[in-house]
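Contributing new complexes? Match this layout with iron/sulfur cluster.
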Amino acid sequence: MAKYFIKTYGCQANKNESERYATYFEQELSLQEASDWREDGVSEILINTCSVRKAADDRVYSLLRAMGEHFLGVKSGKNLTRRPPPARRSSRHLPHVVLTGCMSRYSEAKMKARYPILSQIVPPNSLGFAYQPQRKDPHQAFISISNGCNSFCSYCVVPYARGREQSRPMNDILAEVAQAVASGFTEITLLGQNVNSYGLEKKNIVERKTDFRLRDAVSNFPQNPDQYTKPVGIPPFVKLLQEISAIDAITKIRFMTSNPWDFHDELIAEIGANKKIDRFIHLPVQSGSNRILQKMNRGYTREDYLSLVHKLRAADPNITIGTDIIVGFCSETDADFADTVSLVKEARFIMGFVAIYSPRPSTLAHKMFPDDVPFAVKKKRFEILDNLLNKQQLDKRPVIV
Ligand code: SAH
Ligand code: SF4
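Output block (do not edit by hand):
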């Protein structure tokens, strides 16, 4: 029987889309899953890529090089751009190799010239939601509630790679939750680049795309206010949480990711009152320095962030918080970094993902600010924070306010 192989990098949104591709390959193409792309009979290979850091791109290039060597017997890479692609060994056994995800913004022609094994590039979310995901996690069902992002944090490639934010209709999401419940799932994790803004994006945003980039470079709190309708009454994300919690069989609801800039008070109240919502909240802060936060276009200050942390703990003292932090962002000084360290201590995170800043083509930071923090300094700051967040036994008890 012919087979397919999927390699997924990056976030849960990618994993979820890959699970829908698995259903597509099995239902529409009658293929069977292979555990390795080198297995005999593999006719379709999907590489679902991440591009948030350069290292993520590099992993995909290595895979494409390895596939080129295996199937075509050639070393591929930069030098091939100036030479015609080599003759294929035998087209009979060559798989159809498709790349999707955040690297799909790269030119297909250039990528194919460099990696002749590559057949096609398709944008993220091309498959839509018609196919139910083949859920790999036996405990929790991951369900996407929106695609894309409008936040335009100055370091981040996601809005360029995945496009403008588009919320799925609430009924579609609830239908997918019902299907997950029917298959025995009791825990749901809702996915979006910023779940708080679910259902609030203005629909005409796509046409006004070119305006964003400049305005976002200089805007500060409130972030891009004209891109969203102001929630009147219950914000749609809170409504969605209430609808899902009303299903008896659901015992736990998680969500990621929440951007602090529009973490509405109604959402805090809902988390406090609704114990089906997991007590762990992932709340990326990125930096503790106001100067750096502004340069990152995050739309909040350290004081806003700490006040949010206190409000969450006031809503329920058992709430625990995790975060994401970038070290070595453009022009970050020792004093800026000291502000991040002090925020980490004050916020009492229970864990955190620390990332070394990696300039990404297309982003505002890449265009406007030099990547001027030496790698050795970035590395040192990474170690200090990673140690503080993930290795030391800090006093991580919730702060009762
Ligand atoms: N939408 C999510 C994050 C998506 S990217 C949010 O806003 O939290 C996941 C994480 O990758 C980010 O939180 C950030 O810490 C990190 N990241 C994104 N771009 C980066 C870059 N250019 N360099 C280093 N880390 C980056
Ligand atoms: Fe990137 Fe910011 Fe959007 Fe998160 S909210 S995906 S960090 S632009």
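Reviewers usually confirm one structural detail per submission. For this one: The radius of gyration is 22 Å.
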